[in-house]
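Our consortium's second objective concerns turning raw sequence data into structural hypotheses that experimental partners can test. To show how far this objective has progressed, the report includes one record in full. It was chosen at random from the queue rather than selected for favorable results. The single chain below, 393 residues long, was entered without modification.
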Amino acid sequence: MPTSPQVTMVASEQEQGLRYYLKREPLILAVLSALAVVSFLGVSGLTRIYRAQQQSLGNRWFTRGVADLKQRNFERAVNEFRTALLYSRDNYDYQLDLAEGLIGLKRTNEAAAYLVNLWERQPENGLVNLELARIAVQRGETEHALRYYHNGIYAIWPGDQEVQRREARLELIEYLLSINAKTQAQAELIALAENLADDPSQHVRVADLFLQAQDYEHALAEYRQSLKLDRHNPVALAGAGRAAFALGRYDLAQHYLETAEAANPNDAQSAALLNSTELVLKMDPFRRQISVAQRHRMVIKAFAAAGERLKSCSAAGNSRGSAPSATSLQSLADTWEKMKPEITEQGLRRNPDLVEAAMTLVFDTERQTNVACGAPTGVDMALLLISKLHEGN
């Protein structure tokens, strides 16, 4: 069937339109793609601007909070950190400082909730571990406190890590001393002492803690190390004197205490300790390099002092009606009265064994009167110290 001219014309126009469209398609696609890219960039740009504004606002409130936290305006700081978190909910620093502010307000439970969450995100954070340790201390949770303190000591710290770790260990040591865990405190102190800088004040601080932990050898060593760096330091001199005194090294204690008193005449503690040290050295008949005559005079004086102490203690014991003490003291008094006529210079020269017998009685007297009547003073305290010095000999 022949095609009509109109149909042929329509087909031709359609074919031409299709060719035109096919020729223009790449351009249309390019334009559409360009519009899509521009739109995407526009949205991304707006998003970045929005986020930048949010971050700027968050930082602004955070900065205010940090300033108030430093000024100990905890209420304001907490409100400012909470506002900052509205703009950045998961910001680690914002949450950490908020926890610090809550601790300042004594809202420990709220602070702990934030800190535990932060610890789970960064268990190696030093400050988070330290704050959790402090909260555990407040709650009396010793095991948790020790764990977090140790984490803090070996954690990551901003700035000077060694200083931060040293301070964390010092805080742990002070906590251990506060709960009377002296053995653990000594171990931590030994570890700390191995890494001290050449700073006399650091050595004095550690020495003072050794002294509190009753580790007198290490205390003396640290005081001496401090004095190598600053030989006129009155605090180190006094500390060395106390440590040497506690060790029964009275000659050395006398040297340090005399120097400490000269460096600081207002040091009443060192002056009192020096007086006791001099009495010990003056009253000890078993010291080397003293003459026989000196030894005899010391024994006579010690024997007389013990007799006076026995009389006053017996009188006090009788007034309190302490039967066991009274019986024990009476036995000592009987022995003292029996021995008294022989404790003379002539008697001691005639019988040298009396020196040891007399001093054994003196030491027994000072020990028992110390229990029955309390700590002695002056000469009696010196004699008690001498008895400890020669205990077991």
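The partners drew two points from this record. Residues 292-389 form one domain. The chain has a mean pLDDT of 87. Both points have been shared with the crystallography group to help prioritize constructs.
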